[in-house]
Amino acid sequence: MIVKLQGGLGNQMFQYAFAKSLESKGFEVLLDASWYNGINSVLKQLKKNNAEIYKNTIRKLEILNFNISLPILYYFNFEEYMLYSKKDIKYSIFHKLYIKLISRKYRNQQTYSNHFIESNNFSHKFNNIKEFSPYSYFEGYFNDIQYFKDIENIIKKDFTLKKPSSINNAKIKDNIINTKNSVFLHIRRGDYLAHNSIHINLGTTYYNNALKIIKQKLSEPYIFIFSNDIKWCKDNFLHYINDDIKKNMKFDFIDGINEILQTCYYG
User: Fold this and answer.
1) 16 and 68 in contact (C-beta within 8 Å)?
2) CB contact at 8 A, 71 and 16
3) Tell me, what's the pLDDT at 151?
4) Which parts of the chain fold into alpha helices (H)?
5) Separation CA 258–CA 26 (nearest Å)
6) Nearest to residue 58, comparing CAs of 8, 15, 12?
7) d(CA 244, CA 178)
8) What DSSP assignment string belongs to 180-234?
9) Residue 151: CB partners within 8 Å, gap ≥ 6?
10) How far is CA 106 from CA 103, 112, 121, 201, 257, in A?
């Protein structure tokens, strides 16, 4: 079985956890990392449509920083794989019996392609693992703990870092852990602004409401702000937050995951 890796680190971790769950069920599993070889398939299609946003993916295969245990295919030809997997099935004795015994209109067409794309009913198929053949190819994000909740300890072990954190990052980590009522707040800009046709840009109402809910649950929350555009956040973010919400809250802006450059307190 092959599971496609795509997207940023968070998505890679979910896809890996899904792949490990397949392995735990007795399958041999490989990871397809060809999406990170320059241009991904989605942007290739955009180029065909003369889209202006065609460019190399900015994502990196950051999951390699963890002690992962599944083999990785850095160069993988999906079309060639599908051709051979279909051929293997077509000429197998089981497929011949399948064709002979089951009427065409009742055959499961997935048997021919073995290409499973995550959908609303995919979790049901996953629970009935017999629906998948050893030659299956899985594509999706699998952002659901239900896929791997039974192997939680294995996932945690694989997601340990190969190298220890830098001194500065370790200090930030200790500061967050030792801070009472600490809260992570992430503001994504950068690539999201360039692709606003496919991503949702959250407005000031969202952040005001979110901070209001946090205040209802925590007294004097300490907000650690992360972003791929931390300069914009430092210059603008707090101007969009209502004064009554900012009251009795602290904000730390994390710059480059190296040092805390600015601390704001609203009393």
Assistant:
1) yes
2) no
3) 95
4) 9-24, 41-48, 78-90, 93-101, 110-113, 122-127, 152-158, 167-178, 191-194, 204-217, 230-236, 243-246
5) 42
6) 8
7) 26
8) TTEEEEEE--THHHHTTTTS----HHHHHHHHHHHHHHSSS-EEEEEESSHHHHH
9) 17, 20, 21, 24
10) 6, 13, 19, 45, 55
Residue 4 backbone phi and psi in degrees, to 5 = -80, 130
The confidence score (pLDDT) of residue 6 equals 92
Q: CB–CB of 98/57 below 8 Å?
A: no
pLDDT tens for residues 78-137?
766 666 555 554 445 544 554 455 554 444 444 435 778 777 567 666 776 666 777 788
Single pTM value for the model:
0.70
- What is the distance between the alpha carbons of residues 169 and 187, in angstroms, rounded to a whole number? 19
> To the nearest 10°, the Cα dihedral for 216, 218, 223, 226?
-80
The distance from CA 71 to its chain's CA centroid, rounded to whole angstroms, is 19
The residue behind tokens 């370790």 is: 170
Number of CB atoms found within 10 A of residue 63's CB: 22
Which two structure tokens, joined as six digits, stand for 183? 């809260």
